[in-house]
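Handoff note, outgoing to incoming analyst
You'll be picking up this chain. Sequence as last confirmed:
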Amino acid sequence: MLEGPLGGGKGSWLVTARKSYVQYIIDRTANDPTIGFAFADAQGRVQYDLAKAWNASLSVMHGTSGLDRTRAENVLGINALFKSDYDFTLTTLALRYAPGSRLLATNRISLLRERYVNANREARRLGSSGYGEWAWNGDAAWQQSNGAALQFGGIARRLRDDGNVLRLGTGGAFTAIDAFRGTGMRSGVYAQQSWNPWRGRIRLTAGGSAGRHSVSGASAATPYASLGLQPASGTSVTFSWGQYAQFAELAQFFSLHGSRRLAPERATHVEAAVEQRLGERTRLRFQLYNRQDRDLIFRPLLDFRILNGRVQGGNLFAPFANSQRGYARGWQTFVQRRTANGFTGWIGYACGVSRVRDGVLRMSYPADFDQKHTVNVFGSYRLRPSVNLSVKWLYGSGFPLRGFFTQVQNDYFLATERNRLRIPPYQRSDFRVNKAFIRDKWQLTLFAEVINFTNRGNVRFDDINSIDGRTGRVRLRFDKMFPILPSAGIVVEF
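Most recent structure output, in case you need it:
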């Protein structure tokens, strides 16, 4: 990263670049040849004060990533992902107007482009997509008084998407199991008013947004409100309620299995939280939440399953539908201590449940990303002014194995219930040590870290390799996640 002044102090510039070397380490620490990921990106930014109240900035970001499973060529199926290339570009021009301390207005124009290509072991294309959009976003904040502020703005996005998904059949020919091409316009406005009377003892916020998608012609209005109280010194209580909407993607609207009549997904979210300060450096927080979902977009007839005692063939051309309702509810808590010297860290725990009911399948089951328990522990200790140690431990109970599966000893079979089985829990332990050498005009920092230093074999579900239509036995493919990853480096700041 390089940065510096511009125009005699009226502006500044910044350039950054990164390239991963994780694959070099994985090749020497893991026996699994199916892991093969790498990325590189660069970013540049220039900002300049045009006048006393006007500031302009231009930023450009470009990145590439890819998956290369050359080492696993002999174990991957003909429809398995062998090589993948992805690139992303984002350019943003922003103009900010701040005539005083009470008004701030910003306008941004952005161009986004992303593209990916997937290929199998024979270098034949399994799918590709080219997505792009032009977007304008305007925001304004008006500080009406010391205890009241108004925020409002709007957005307009011109979208386009073009892609396909292919699968090789038994005759050696590819079949397009999905294809999409189309353009659309998304627009919306929002406004939010906040009040903070009585020296911060009460904080009230109310507002809402409205949006429209040109493809479906659907509109959505979503209100929001929150109330914050400070009943005692060091104690804060927050209640919030809101409704939210998300339109379908172009790839769903224009899919071979999609429809322009797809309604936006909707959610109503209620949340309550209590936070207590325990001295100057420690805080404890407890939070409850409940979310009700409806009109969720799904393809209910896509999966193979057992129906009336027989194997029911999955329909690769199953349509998208707003077929699901569901909920997510639970609680989470954490305790945190922050200090410049000595011990800094936190412990967080979350417990939740997420379920959906499909109107087409007429069944209820855990949501695909239902995770009942998660734990996050982090600790950092400064041994000396220039030496710092940190340790992190993550735990998450297993996600459902997406589909209609059951397990008999070491074999998997199709089942009548969806998401009945779960992937083993995820665990990871990381360690890092920093040593800084500080001089008058520059600083050098040496670091060494080990990610997953217990070398736990975490896995994720990838795809179905084969299905026996007579017995219902299935062969599932699981991908191993990162093994132990030691690394070391130098950071020079001047």
